């Protein structure tokens, strides 16, 4: 399976509750934290929802 890495580059403070819950579900709790997970359609959808707050670092596989 392929993996995807992403990083929180803008804070979730002052954002709608739905976006903050999405960041928590993506395991992004601190600025500049990089997370690597399996690349699934649900992860892609969550990243698209908060694309203005995160940056995809790498896509492996």
Amount of beta strand: 25-35%
Helix content: 25-40%
Going by CATH, the homologous superfamily would be: Ribosomal protein L30/L7
The CATH topology corresponds to Ribosomal Protein L30, Chain: A
Question: What does the radius of gyration come to?
Answer: 11 Å
The CATH first-level class comes to Alpha Beta
Mean pLDDT: 94
Number of strands: 3
Shape: globular
Q: Which architecture would the CATH scheme give at its second level?
A: 2-Layer Sandwich
Strand order of the largest sheet: 2-1-3
Number of helices: 2
What is the number of independent domains?
1
What would you call the structural class? alpha+beta
Terminal residue distance: 7 Å
Largest sheet: 3 strands, antiparallel
Low-confidence blocks of residues: none
Order of helices and strands: EHEHE
Explain the overall architecture.
The chain has a single domain (3-60), classed as Ribosomal Protein L30, Chain: A (2-Layer Sandwich), CATH 3.30.1390. The radius of gyration is 11 Å and the shape is globular. The protein has two helices and three strands, in the order βαβαβ. It is α+β, with helices and mostly antiparallel strands and 61 residues long. It has helices at 17-25, 41-49; strands at residues 3-8, 34-38, 54-60. The chain has a three-stranded antiparallel sheet with strand order 2-1-3, with no helix packed on it.
């Amino acid at each position: 399976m392929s993996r995807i890495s992403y990083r929180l580059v803008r804070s979730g403070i002052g954002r709608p509750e739905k976006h903050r819950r999405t960041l928590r579900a993506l395991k992004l709790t601190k600025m500049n934290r990089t997370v690597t997970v399996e690349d699934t359609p649900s992860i892609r959808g969550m990243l698209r929802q908060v694309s203005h707050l995160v940056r995809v670092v790498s896509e492996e596989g």
